[in-house]
User: What shape does this take?
Amino acid sequence: MTNQLFTSIILGGALLTSGCATKKYVAKTTDPIRDHVNQVASQADQQGQKLDQQGQQIGQQGDELKKHGADIDQSKTDISANKERAMAADSRAGEAIQKSDQNTRALSELRQTVANLDDYKPSGTVAVPFAFNKDVLTAPAKEELDRLVADKTSLKRYFIAVEGFTDKTGTVQYNNALSKRRADAVVMYLVAKHDIPVYRIHEIGLGEEKPADEGKGRAANAKNRRVEVTFFSADPQVTARAQ
Assistant: This one.
């Protein structure tokens, strides 16, 4: 009995000793692994935080790039609009220069015409009749004007005198305005139908002045309701025929 008890004690002590040794071995083996795992996990967390920060920075850069892109698009739009305005301004400037050149030439020709006025001779004249209180050209009146300027607008030195008149019916002020409208009708027809430059036409409305007939009847009034149109030229072939 004593021997068995002793044996059991020895075996128990051996087992206890063996168990303690195993725990120490396990702890010694696993602790470094656990520490390494914890270290790796900490590094992974740090890297994850860095990646999050980089992701945020990339997102901010993307927003800035979008903003810059919008600014660039707006700049392109502004540049295009400015270019169109500049082209329009250049076009208007070109038209203004062209008109200025035309006016300069016209003024030069007019000055030359006035300077050599004595050289101009009448080469044709018509009296265009108008109905009572009317300022509209009739078909026969247009035919008279067509014959007057036929084959003459190719001349280099000429002008046309247009004088409007009325009869004595009505006030002086009204007749002056009516005679001007009648003269305007003739000028508009010559310019629109025969392409005669306006600066070659000298126009005036004289109302009831300078009557063609001093009488007071209907026949006299009909003669006085007129526009006298005279073609003047200083071209040698025209003045020779006129003389």
